[in-house]
Amino acid sequence: MRPAPAHPCPDNFPRRTRPGSRLRSACTACLVTGLAIMMMTPGAAAAVDLGDASILSRQGQRLQLAIPFGSDPGERVSATRFSVVSVEAPGDGAAPPDPRGFTISRPEQRNVVYLRSDRPVDNERLRIVVSVSDPGGEAARIAYDIVIPPARHAPARDPHAPRPPRR
């Protein structure tokens, strides 16, 4: 509890303040408000997080991947640029797709990015490095080691081969 002043002032009498203290208080309030707004702005405080890739295609098709980003399902993330940095095929398989040939799409209302190669892929395994940049220009890279499921269809049968007898 504060002690009573030696000379009490009437309520309508203005109290003396130090010169510049009001300006200092206003600047402090603006600074605190600005910091609070920056902390609530998505993407301002942290880099964009990339999730696990889902493979949406099979061998013999154009490679399609879906990669979620952000930490919460409803979180609005302002990532500005996604790119495929490199694609490698371990072993002696077919040549991997060109990283510059990927189509990248991002739906407006969802935190997911879709990658699609420009040609069919016959590899069983690929290592894909994806880069994402936030509005501040900081880029994060993540490597995905993916296993592409085999094709579903059976090999084509010779049209001139005899049919098995019907029952």
Number of strands: 7
The proportion of strand residues reads 25-35%
Q: Please give the radius of gyration in angstroms.
A: 31 Å
Major sheet strand order: 1-2-5-4
The residue fraction in helices comes out at 10-25%
Question: What is the count of helical runs?
Answer: 1
The rough form would be described as: elongated
Order of helices and strands: HEEEEEEE
Parts with pLDDT < 50 across at least 5 consecutive residues: 34-46
For the terminal residues, how far apart are their CA atoms?
102 Å
Q: Kindly report the average pLDDT value.
A: 75
Q: Structural class of the helix and strand makeup?
A: alpha+beta
Largest sheet: 4 strands, antiparallel
Concise overview:
The chain is of the alpha+beta class. 12% of the residues lie in helices and 29% in strands. The chain has one helix spanning 21-40, and strands at residues 54-55, 61-68, 81-88, 103-105, 112-121, 125-133, 139-147.
How would you sum up this structure, described in words?
A hairpin with a 5-residue loop joins β6 and β7. It contains one helix and seven strands. The chain has one helix at residues 21-40; strands spanning 54-55, 61-68, 81-88, 103-105, 112-121, 125-133, 139-147. The chain is elongated and about 100 Å long. The model is unreliable at 34-46 (pLDDT under 50). Helix content is 12%, strand content 29%.
